Amino acid sequence: MPRQAMQRRLPALVAAAGLAALSAVPAAGAASESALRSELEALKQRIKELERKLEARRQNERQTEEKLAELEKEVASAAEWKSPNTLIHMAGYADVGYTDARGASGTFDSVRFNPIVHYQYRDLVMLESELELKVTEDGETETGLEYLTIDLFLNDYVAIVAGKFLSPVGWFRQNIHPSWINRLPSAPAGFGHDQAAPNADVGLQVRGGFPAFGGFNRVTYAVYVGNGPTLEADGGEIEMIETPGLGSDTDGEKVVGGRLGVFLAQRRLELGVSGATGKVSVTKNAGASVSDGARGYRVLGADFTWRPWRLDLRGEYIRQEVDDLASSAYATEGGTWRAWYLQAAYRFRPTPWEVVARYADYDTPHDSKDLTQWALGVNYVFAANIVAKLAYEFNDNPNSGVAPSIDDRMLAQVAYGF
Amino acid sequence: MGNAMAKRKRSANRPAAGVAAAGLLLAAAAAWPPASRAEYPPKGDFARGARLWVLNCGRCHEARDPKELRDDQWITTLYHMRVRGGLTGQDVRDLYTFMERSN
Questions:
Q1: What is the ipTM of this complex?
Q2: Contact, A90 vs A117, CB < 8 A?
Q3: Which of A96, A313, A329, B41 is the most interior residue, by most CB within 10 Å?
Q4: What is the mean pLDDT of chain A?
């Protein structure tokens, strides 16, 4: 019974009881007085009972109101979590692997964890950073900062990217190298760290895309200025072009470059050309830090991705070149590092099985490092981001009488992107 | 002598690079923030987002199931992909609308 209704009825009940008692007096006399008294007592008891019930109901209402207030707080808290101005997200990938090279015992040689952290302020600014943690041969843990950039979304077509970034020259190094994306357990010959393809740089980049040619087609672009690479010399020759993304520019000469791509969505075809130019200098000779004059540096690249039917075809060409420098104290001759690869992958949908084949060619100024490589693999795709790979690489040195720098080998890997 | 000339040349290059970088940052500052919006990202086109999901993800990797992530995680993931894959702002809004309603 509602509280107000009960309160209204209480006086009426008391009055009715009194009237009943008074009207009974003349008729019943003294004999019925005790009966009336007991009836009055019963009514009093009933009133007390009703008062107790009313108090209990009030108590319940107070408790309900308190619970409701708590719930309102929780709902408000959940809404805050859904739409804060700053979003935090951890992504990345990890992989474990096993290698069995000809003439060597098999070994579990790959344990790698690459967390990527995203901090985003609304749709205006994003901080993104990838670390690489991996176990070395002697059991130590090697750490590296793969990239760290603050991205400013200027408008729908332009983002300014500042910091250490993966080189926008080419496609494999900036987009395909993560193990859950790469369809083989290894990078193509020449596309590993400090080989023919630039890896990273520190500087400023402007990149984005805009609709072109109708439909879902798009032109993509990236232009950057950075500290550029450095050269390592040994024995009077340039050993390698190092592109780790240097935090200093020892020769004071910047490198500028970029990539221009066309994505024809309906044809599932993407074509890209890349280039960079600037000056670089030798900063290491036989492992020791040195200072040398600046010399010309150029990169040229082209890449494609084509996905007809269930096939995934992709390929890339990259060429890094450094000029001669007659006045150099460490290496007067320059050199060209060139690599290309073609890869085909086929997924037997709806099954989780996939087969992959890749051919790669890597040419350097040093015969001992040249490599031609066939890789054949079969994958089991647990989910779009989880894959187990088994592959065999056939490695050869194209120079007669020179042993390849990598033996033929079997590779197994499980990769997880998150 | 040669070193001194090279140093002078490098010194001359530095202001040009500095001016270019400063110009870029000033342009960014002038245009930022692009708009004041109560909600972000603003709603896009669900059907277009679905089509973009099919066509774009496979440029590098298999398309991920919308159910893999929460809505807020999709926002950061899609803005990451905007930088990586040269998506436009409208592409991101359409993709997010598709992901948000499909997970």
A1: 0.81
A2: yes
A3: B41
A4: 92
